[in-house]
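Summary for the funding panel

The consortium committed to producing paired sequence-structure records for every protein in the target list. Below we show the first two records in order, beginning with the earlier of the two.
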Amino acid sequence: SLGSSKWKDRKEALDELLAVLSANLRIKESPELGDLAKSLAHCIQKDANINCVMTAAGCVEALAKGMMTGFGRYRESVVGPMLERLKERKATVTDAIGTALDAVFLTVS
C-alpha cells in the first residue's frame, strides 16, 4: 500500500495502480478519485524514494488523461505538491513530474 514503510511495497502498489490507470482510456469520475489524486500528490512531494515519486507522477498523468476535464477539479490539490518536488536535482524525476503537470494542465481550459 502507499502507506507502507517499505519503499518496495509502495513501489509495487504504484506499479499496479499505474497498470490499471494506463489500461483504461476513459476513467469514470467517482469521489474516491479525489482522495487518490491527493495521495499520489503527497507521494510525489514527500516520498524519499525517487522510483516511487516517478511512478506516482506517471499515475497522476494517466489519471488526468483518463479523466480529462473531470480531473480539473483536483488540479489545486495536486499541482502545489508536484511543483514543490520540482526542486529535485535528478532530471528523471523532474521530467516525470513535468510530464504529469502537462497532462494536468490539459484538463483545464
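The next record, for a separate protein in the list, is shown here:
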Amino acid sequence: MAKKIYYSMNDVPLGTQMVVKSNNKKVVLVQKFNFPTTFVTKDENGVEEKYYTYEVDILHWPPK
C-alpha cells in the first residue's frame, strides 16, 4: 500500500499565490505564523494583510 503524504498549512511556501474568499483579491504569501496558522499576504499595491487559513484559497496547493 502506498504511503499517503500529508501537507499542513504550515508547509505552504512563501511566494505562493492565494485568492481571498471574501473579495476575490489575489495576494502573495510573505510570512506565516503558527497557532493559529495565519498568513501575512501582500497584494499588487503592496498592502500587507493577515488572513486565517479558512479565509483564502491557496492556488496550486498541495503539490501533486
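Regarding this second record: Residues 2 and 56 are 30 Å apart (CA to CA). The chain has no helices and five strands.
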